[in-house]
Structures are given as structure tokens and as C-alpha cells.
Specification:
One of its GO terms (cellular component) is cytoplasm. The chain has about 475 residues and is of the alpha+beta class. Helix content is about 30%, strand content about 25%. The longest helix is centred in the first third of the chain and has 20 residues.
Length: about 475
């Protein structure tokens, strides 16, 4: 009798209860091999593309290799301001019936050089910086840093700068204060105040040019001379430059079992890579598809390369013209209203050492699959997109049919914090949209950690979404 009751309870639990399981336990051997191939390709991409411009350049090369063109066609892409890219695959249905849209972002927290960055003090040369996005300032001291970006001269000449990555390259760094002298200056302050933004100055040199000892700024002049010899730039050229200080070195495998990938910029280049990988394999989908790789998300999606710009409207307008549709006054809006979209963005994975900020029943687990986040925002759901139940149910069906392993999760306890994505800006057009991406450990740090299984399921989820019919 007891045995029978136990069996009945087990059957009922299997039928009714929701019990998430690790992705690895549910994968066939061929899928595990595919996972490792995807992870290695992603690791290489992450090591190569450390700025939004470098992301666009790398993705454009992959698209061209796969047969995409920059001229309107069934498979084409377009680049805007060198920092935003949109790629499209024509479906069996014209865009007017709605588009399958994935929007990700390719900017990441970093240190940007100021307009007049170079100065000398105590016979050492430094670059002044202004941090970009939400960072913990103490993450950026006492570590090897590299300089990436572009300098544009008045005649239009563009000089690409990558320093600190090649074998034999010197690296840069922000120096920290030794603990022996830091008790009052840092130790008695709040963690957020211990390192002021104005002290995130990057050490770049210490050898003076030959000259009289009383002559000033010989070290600064020596650095300017080196920069001119290597890149042909002068001090005034910093005014028309976009130079970003990022962590030096490649992305790497983490863990004795190599389960994780660690590296800079995974928020949100992991979603961008997964979306691109899914798009490259797409052949004649039911609905026309569009994948957006956006800039400026980490500072509020402002500017003409962010999600708040009207770039999307222009893309839809051109997409309709490609199909022979002459857009009328409301044609673009009608198309966007019929669109189904995914905001490809990461969320916080639960760290067992900081469970006090997590809600275990509703937060994301590492290695349990792509995360469907119905709403973002912070306390009271402010500044959030909140996806409709009908749309979430449709996605559940799509994932079930495609064998996608997902988890539904939010980010942290209700009053603990929160965050936003581009979803709320695209929802303003009336389209259905929800956040979908992998969890990360150490998000917004210079060394974020992702589980390979979550990357793989994110790619599978995006592919299922782009391929989906009604």
C-alpha cells in the first residue's frame, strides 16, 4: 500500500510539478560535440571583438563569408555609423505580415579616454578616462589593460588602434594604492567610494626624452612621439578619437572540466554571437527575419546608434520596398505592430556565495539553459517591459517543438536591484517582445563567466524563434 502511494505521488509530481534539470543531463553526444564547437567559435569571437566597432567588423566578415551582401537581396546586411549592424533574411511571407526580430547590443562597460587624456605627473605619463556604463571601479585597478579604438583625422583618415593584445605588446594599467597606506584613503570608505572615477587614470609611460632635467613634460612628449611614430597622430587628434580601455588578453575556458567561458564583454556579445550563429544557418524561414546589433545600451540606449533612434523604422521601410511595397503613412507602423521580437540580453546567474540577493525559486541557474525573463525593471516593475502571457505561451510551444531547454527567471529579490534592456524601447512600437538570453556570473566585471550549455541553448532558442511560423 505504501509503495503504491509513493508511486502515485511520483507519477503526479512528474505530471504536474515543474522541476528544472541541467542541460548537460539532457544532451545527446552529438549535441555535446556541437556545443563544444560553438563554444570554441564564440571564444575566438569574444577575444577578437572587444569594442562595438570591432564587433561590427567581425560580424560583417562572417556574414559576407556566408553569402550575405550589402545590397538589398534575400540575404543582406547593412552597417550604420560603424557601430550598429542589421542583418536580414527574407521569408516566405513579406515583412508586412510581421517580422521575426532579435535585438541585441554590442557595447560593454569600459573606460573611455577623455578628450584631452594625456598628462604627466612625477615623471610618469597617464591617460585620463571616463568610465562607460555600470562598473564597479575597483574591478579596473591593478590589472592588465589594452587600448582599442579609432582615431579620425580632419582629412577623414581613419587610424585603427589596438595596443596590448599582440604577443610582445606592452599593456597598460590603473595603479591601486598599497594596503599599507590605504587604511583611511580607501579602507574607511564605502566600497563604491574607495576609488573615485577621476583616479581611474591609466599608466602609459615613464621614460623621458633626452634633455635638461628642468624641462617639463619630457615623459609626456616621449609618449606623443611614440604615438606619432606608430600611428601618425598628434595630441589634438584625441579630440576626434574613440579610444576604449578594455581588459587585455583572450577569452578562456574556466574550470578543470572546461564547463565555462570567461572573458570581457559577454554582456551582451554572447547574445549577439548566438543570434548571428542562428541567422547564418537560416534558410527560407516562414516569416522575414531581422537581427539588430545595437550600440549604447549600457548608457541608456541613447544616441543615433542606440535603440531609441529611429534606425529600425528606416530598416523596415527599406525592407518593405525590397518586396515591392510602397510604404504609405502607416505601413511601417502596421508592420512593427505585427512583429514578434526577442530582446537578446543576459541576466544574473545565481552565485551560491551571494544568495542573500537572489530568490532561489525565481532566479537563473548556471547550466540550466537559456533564460526567459518575462519582465525586467526594478522595484514595482518600473522601467520594464512586461511580456503578455499569450506571447510567452507561444514561445513555450516553439521551444518545446524545437527541443530548446529553457528556464524562466527574474533577476534578484524584489527590492534588491534590477536592470533594463532594449525591450521597453522596441515595445513602444506595439510589437510583442520578451527578454531571452543566458545567465552570467560576474556580470559587468572585466571577466564575466558563462556556462557553455547556456550559450548553446541560447543559440538553439534564437534559431527556433527565427524559424517559427504561427
Amino acid at each position: 500500500m505504501a509503495r503504491r502511494k509513493k508511486d502515485e505521488l511520483k507519477t503526479l509530481k512528474e505530471k504536474l510539478a515543474y522541476r528544472p534539470r541541467p542541460v548537460w543531463d539532457q544532451l545527446a553526444e552529438k549535441d555535446k560535440k556541437a556545443l563544444e564547437r560553438l563554444a570554441e567559435d564564440y571564444r575566438k569571437f569574444l577575444s577578437l571583438a572587444k569594442t562595438e566597432r570591432e564587433c561590427v567588423e567581425a560580424m560583417a566578415a562572417l556574414l559576407k563569408k556566408a553569402g550575405f551582401t550589402e545590397k538589398p537581396s534575400a540575404r543582406y546586411f547593412t552597417v550604420f555609423r560603424e557601430k550598429t549592424l542589421a542583418a536580414m533574411v527574407a521569408g516566405k511571407k513579406p515583412p508586412y505580415y510581421g517580422v521575426r526580430l532579435i535585438a541585441t547590443h554590442i557595447d560593454s562597460p569600459r573606460l573611455d579616454l577623455k578628450l584631452h587624456p594625456l598628462y604627466e605627473d612625477l615623471e610618469m605619463a597617464f591617460f585620463k578616462t571616463h568610465y562607460y556604463g555600470g562598473i564597479k571601479k575597483y574591478h579596473w585597478v591593478a590589472r592588465p589593460l589594452a587600448l582599442h579604438g579609432v582615431v579620425v583625422k580632419p582629412d577623414g583618415t581613419r587610424v585603427k588602434v589596438v595596443l596590448g593584445e599582440a604577443p610582445g605588446d606592452p599593456v597598460l594599467t590603473v595603479c591601486d594604492l598599497l594596503p599599507h597606506l590605504a587604511r583611511k584613503v580607501q579602507g574607511e570608505k564605502k566600497l563604491s567610494e574607495a576609488i573615485p572615477g577621476e583616479k581611474l587614470n591609466v599608466l602609459v609611460g615613464g621614460l623621458p626624452l633626452p634633455g635638461e632635467a628642468e624641462e617639463k613634460e619630457r615623459v609626456k612628449l616621449a609618449i606623443l612621439k611614440l604615438l606619432h611614430e606608430k600611428y601618425g597622430i598628434t595630441e589634438e587628434d584625441f579630440v576626434s578619437a574613440e579610444l576604449e580601455v578594455v581588459p587585455a588578453g583572450p577569452a578562456v575556458e574556466v574550470g578543470l572540466d572546461r564547463a565555462f567561458i570567461g572573458g570581457y564583454g559577454q554582456d551582451d556579445r554572447i547574445c549577439a554571437f548566438a543570434a548571428l550563429a542562428a541567422l547564418l544557418e537560416l534558410q527560407e524561414p516562414e516569416y522575414s527575419t531581422l537581427v539588430l546589433f545595437l550600440d549604447k545600451e549600457e548608457i541608456g540606449s541613447d544616441g543615433n546608434t542606440g535603440a531609441k533612434s529611429r534606425f529600425l523604422e528606416k530598416l523596415i521601410y527599406d525592407y518593405l520596398k525590397l518586396w515591392g511595397v510602397t510604404p504609405q503613412g502607416d505601413t511601417v507602423l502596421e508592420t512593427l505592430l505585427r512583429t514578434r521580437a526577442v530582446s537578446g540580453d543576459v541576466t544574473a546567474g545565481m552565485d551560491p556565495h551571494y544568495l542573500e540577493v537572489h530568490e532561489k525559486l525565481n532566479d537563473a541557474r548556471m547550466g540550466y539553459g537559456v533564460v526567459l525573463t518575462k519582465y525586467t525593471g526594478h522595484g514595482g516593475k518600473y522601467m520594464a517591459n512586461d511580456a503578455h502571457a499569450e506571447y510567452v505561451a507561444w514561445l513555450r510551444r516553439i521551444f518545446s517543438e524545437a527541443g530548446v531547454i529553457y528556464q524562466a527567471a527574474s533577476m534578484g529579490k524584489v527590492d534588491e536591484g534590477g536592470g533594463g534592456t532594449v525591450a521597453k524601447y522596441l515595445a513602444a512600437y506595439g510589437m510583442d517582445i520578451v527578454d531571452l538570453g543566458p545567465p552570467l556570473l560576474g556580470m559587468h566585471s572585466p571577466f564575466e563567466v558563462a556556462h557553455k550549455a547556456d550559450l548553446y541553448m541560447t543559440y538553439r532558442a534564437y534559431k527556433a524563434f527565427l524559424s517559427a511560423g504561427d
